[in-house]
Amino acid sequence: MPQHFIKPGADWGKASAVGLSLAICVACPAWAQTTVPATAGVTASKVELTFPDVEITEKSLEFRQFEKVEITGSAILAKEAKQALPLQILDRRDIERSGAASLPELLQRLPLMSNFFESGTVTGTVAGGPEAAAIHGNQGGTLVLLNGRRLPYYGSQAIMIDRSVVDLNFLPLAAVEKIEILTDGASSRYGSDAVAGVINVITKTDIQGLSVGVEATVPQDGHGHSKGVNLSWGKGRLQRDGYSLRAHFTAQKTEAVLAKHREVSSQGARSMQIDGKTWWLTQNYSAYSAPAKNYLDANGDLKNTYYLQTGQCEPGWYELGRGKCFTNTQGEMTLYPEVNKQLLYLQGDRMLANRWVVFAEGLLGQQKFNTVAGGDYNTKDVLGPDGNTYLLDIVPLGLMSRQQYVNHIGNIALGLRGEQYGWDFVTSVSSGRHRVRRDFIGGAVTNGFAAATLPPEIVGQHPSQYSADTLALLRQYQGPEKEWLDDAFSQIDSFNFLASREWMETDYGPASVGAGLDWRRERVYYTARDKETRPGFDASRLVWAAHLELSSPVGPHSEVTAAARYDQYSDFGGVQTAKLGWKWQPERAWLFRASVGTGFRAPNIAQMVPISSTIAGYMDSFGNEISVKSGGNPMLRPEKSLQRNLGFRYEPNQRWSLGADLWQLDIRDTFGYLTIEEILNNPGLKAKFFDQQLLTQTNQNLGRSVKRGLDYDIHWRQPTDLGRVRTSLKGVYMLKSAKEDAVDRTWVSNIGTHTSPFLTTARHQWSLTSMLERPQWVGGFTLHYKTGYDLETTLYDKDNNWRNETTRVPGHWTLDLLSRWQIQPKLTLSAHLINATNRMPALRMGIQDNALLGVDTRYANYMGRNLQLKLDYKF
């Protein structure tokens, strides 16, 4: 990303004034010695200039210290990022113009990101409730840092599901100064989890006074409104006053979007016409309703009263079998959950007598998700007046699958940085915990409900027609409004020490060395109401590591860097990683870089606990019910990676900049588990994992995966009479994304295709941004695009015949309009029209990885056109 020398808005005016003043001052001596030349009729005379008296007052000296800081991906402290690293930087200007209201929203819009947990995946999936980042689609291999330090994983760690991610809802966006995104592996610097790259969120260091911001989002299609408030306060400048204090608080509330609020997600079954015949794809439907329209006759056959009268199903119902009609239960399910979030971040620095700096930071946050994971009510088979058994939804008792996630995060850090004996030092201790509590919030019934007898006339009544006696009868079986489901947390306590210096001088410049020590304790805890099927666990481990980095010029225009690290885990042993990098700049405009390195990702503690939990039942092809248990594996090995990168940058002048990086990431011993079908269809696996109708799935090191792609960016800026124009294009083009089949060892690609549970990888995604900058106003647009993919699915007709079909989900683009107006020096108004053309992602007719038919919230956003307004005032 290009460097920004002059900030927009008021800073442009200040810079112009400073430049004009300097020009005047330079000219002043010449003016003082200049005589006016004689012209016709005019006598030349010497001009005497006089100046007012200057009053000199005493004032404490404030100076700017270009201190060395940690650079993401390097152990050597420096004043600026090294171009040898493929590092993308989002600065404060980029953040303010993005229109994002939160850190997840900002990061998940980037072309670099794909296949991440986001707020929509909380509904009916195994993801839980985090919002995560995934560089090049590798979520578990993306390490997220706050000011260079680790944060705790998402609190609810499951035995089978890999949730080793940092929930991005940990920091107010107003506290962020910049975000450094390293798109190359960095295990030789940070250890585990950095195989795909690193995201380092860096907070502001200088805030003066109080700033207040209010914001609101208004969707055109209704529902999903949000509002929020941001407060920032700061006092003191470290270099002038010897201390600096900062505080940030944000509160946001977002309304839920139900599936019925968007047409594309409104139906739980969809039909297709193929060769003049109707075929169905089904997900969320039911034979029960209120009033009851379906019944079982004396022979146990399903009948529908409307169909018997008209020969067709009632409008809005699905005929999924001959004469068999079903209701849609998807409409009341959650597309995007209701969210209520509060975040507080505090930070301070103090200068000591020896110019060392002690620093501290703390964050505290809470986020509540309310979601409906299923559209089913409690049901009863009620004997009707005609002697048939009617299938009735008990609507007054509420939906059964209403859940609430309450996420808490707390993190504190204390550290010291300074210089001594030519060495630059940074050391810190930190402790953080992320906790998740899950509750059912409605729909629970008492034990007596199963044996309850309901009056026959209820079957033909709409719930609004129920008598007071009927409602009283039903409410006596209503369970508690909130019922605890499970509770879990993840905790990390760490110590970090880093030192670096220029250790020798060469003919082409100084050589530098950096070294560090890391120690941390990781702990996970889980407990559930149903301890028989979901046993709890409380496990921890210790990790210590040492790392070293050397950097030296090897010629007038080139530099090499070598790094190595050793990590020792108390549960599975030691891991060594290394990296070698090279930079060559033959002339000012051109720069070439390359790197090769090894990395690893440790299995999370929950994946290794030696216990099993019951997750589901399964019906085999012969109609036999099979119990399925999931189990941890204490012998699970870490994933090992080999990453390579080759890139260049070309900057012929200050107006143009472009670059590209060709990268490849090979991972072996990938984490996962064998599917039920893979176990049952392979005699050897069946003999190992299946016994007496009990199938056990355990975490395994399955095989290999390979990803290869091209990251590129182009930047152009041009002064015009209307203002300065800035245009940038950033994208990722995938060349390969494949995984080795765990059974037959064939390679399966997921570029432009979807095979569950292997996620889809878009062939190409990019963002084009163009902005016009004026002194008090900035406006422009961003165009986002992502290529489509193929889906394989199985369809059924009314006679239960089936066929496999491949459908195409077309590419998707959206246009955002952005504007920011500085009304006065202290007041700024931002307006962003997101998805200005109101383009909705295409209907998804295929394999479902979440609970909703027709949509995939990881692939695209379903909010439609929405207006985001934000007003900031600085006191």
Largest sheet: 22 strands, antiparallel, barrel
Oligomer: single chain
Distance between the termini: 32 Å
The coarse silhouette is: globular
The value of Rg in angstroms is: 31 Å
Indicate the proportion of strand residues: over 45%
Count of β-strands: 48
Poorly predicted residue ranges: 1-52, 54-66
Q: Give the overall pLDDT as a whole number.
A: 88
Structural class: mainly beta
Q: What share of residues is helical? A: under 10%
Q: What is the count of helical runs? A: 10
Can you give me a brief rundown of this structure?
This protein is mainly β and 875 residues long.
Would you mind describing this structure in some detail?
Helices cover 8% and strands 48% of the residues. By secondary structure, the chain is mostly beta strands. The chain has a 22-stranded antiparallel barrel. A five-stranded mixed sheet has the order 1-4-5-2-3. A hairpin with a 3-residue loop joins strand 27 and strand 28. The two termini are 32 Å apart.
